[in-house]
Amino acid sequence: MPPLTAIERFFERLFERPVARLFRTRLQPIQIQHRIERVMEGERLTTTDRTLVPNRFVVHVHPSDLAEFGDMTGTLASELADGALSFARAHRYTVVDRPQVDLVPDAAIDRADVRVDARFAGALPGRTGPDRGTTPARDDGPPDGIDPTATRVYEVPRPTTPRAVILVTDPDGSSGRVVFDGGSLTIGRATDNDVVARDGRVSRHHGRIVGRRGTLVYADLGSTNGSRVNGVAVTEVVLGVGDRLEVGDTALVVEVAGAAD
Hints:
Blueprint: H1 3-23, H2 29-42, E1 45-46, E2 51-52, E3 56-61, H3 63-69, H4 73-90, E4 100-105, E5 115-119, E6 162-169, E7 175-180, E8 184-188, E9 195-196, E10 207-212, E11 215-220, E12 227-229, E13 232-234, E14 236-239, E15 244-247, E16 250-259
Parallel strand pairs: 3-4, 8-9
Antiparallel strand pairs: 1-2, 3-5, 6-7, 6-16, 8-10, 10-11, 11-14, 12-13, 12-15, 15-16
């Protein structure tokens, strides 16, 4: 996220809730929409050819706020989902399936406030395919027995942590393998890194690999010479089997990637 955008959103969050409490304003749908959009951008994942954003949103609101929407709750959830899809298309983001929004009463949330939990999910029954940010996904209606106007509550599953075996090749051609079992794997010249590079073109703290929502994510830590995946310059990217990460003249190739045992 660009620094200026992050600062603007910080001040937006800073003033939004105190003002609402001071004037006892009602929770407005546009507030929920903006919070969903903010979460989409904050949770996005960038690959070499696209940017993925979450497509399942659980919106926590105070029970009194939810009650004020009355019979319009189901319609509001649908409109919020449509708004999320429009936002993704406008920013050329990719969603793996049409967004879904669920409104959940939560007494722990302040009046006129919102908390949004987001996750990535595959196609639901009755939905015909992924939306790539350009062509609308068809919606042939909900599965049999499901009330499309109901406010659904579900538990957000904890993602599995990826396991990976990575082949590391130094500039002199020597190589070795490192096993990643979750957490964080740092790369750089400094001796406090998990992978210590013997490479003058590698920064002291060059990059980091982490497990995020069942994926293997590499992030450049502001290195001098940058990072490349399969020859393409990246700042943050999801890695898969066969991907070649280059930091300076050091190469790291993902040989195995999958869920931990």
